[in-house]
Amino acid sequence: MAVQINPSILSADFARLADEARAVEGADWLHVDVMDNHFVPNLTLGVPVVESLARATDTPLDCHLMIEAPDRWAPQYVEAGASSVTFHVEAAAAPVRLAREIRAKGARASMALKPATPVEPYEDLLPELDMLLIMTVEPGFGGQAFLDIVLPKIRRTRELIAKHGLELWLQVDGGVSDATIERCAEAGADVFVAGSAVYGAADPAAAVRALRAKAQAATEHAAWACDH
User: Binding positions for a divalent metal cation (predicted)?
Assistant: First the structure.
């Protein structure tokens, strides 16, 4: 099964975003962290920057909304050019309705869970989604250490996906690097957000290729992938 690598511009140079986007051409998506200083204790960027990025790169944008009231704001990110929009279930008032609205506007709908949020209560929502994001750090800041305690939840999520026969991407975000990506792939993730591991490298495009190779090799030997 193919893996996908999504470099996170949270670790990029914000004064050179267009150049930084081009530096990772060959990546599957460009991960854009939107933070409002309310849902998480950090403030990053919003709709105007997403609009500018969408014009500056051919790499599709994967917008991760760490904001309050995503039911109100998420559709605007589709209109701004995002090809995938992720909202946090902890913040959404009506996650099914929101996922359907995102899809109706032409983007992939994704739902994110914080490390302490269990996946099981949302099993019935999974068919409404194109991707589920399991946070492997507490959302809000880049450069945090990977939380191994989330690996069992990734495995349980992969089991639920298989149980329902879904074509659902399983994304991980937080502390993903050459030291942790294999564990994530073995547990069941197939979409990997990497920030400092890519943009902290001397050659970001080479870092993307190296991460992809490690994740692909781990996936090929993972029990969950061998079952398909």
Answer: 31, 33, 64, 173
Q: Give the DSSP letter string of 67-111.
A: -S-HHHHHHHHHHTT-SEEEEETTT-SSHHHHHHHHHHTTSEEEE
pTM beyond cutoff 0.70: yes
Annotated binding-site residue? 106: no
Distance between terminal CA atoms of the chain?
A: 9
Query: Does 200 carry a binding-site annotation?
Result: no
Per annotation, catalytic residue among 28, 33, 130, 190: 33
The yes-or-no answer on residue 124 being catalytic is no
Q: What is the pLDDT of residues 15-30, one digit of tens each?
A: 999 999 999 989 999 9
- Residue of 28, 36, 173, 190 marked active site: 173
Q: What is the tens place of the pLDDT at every residue in 94-129?
A: 999 999 999 999 999 999 999 999 999 999 999 999
For this structure, is 148 an active site residue?
no
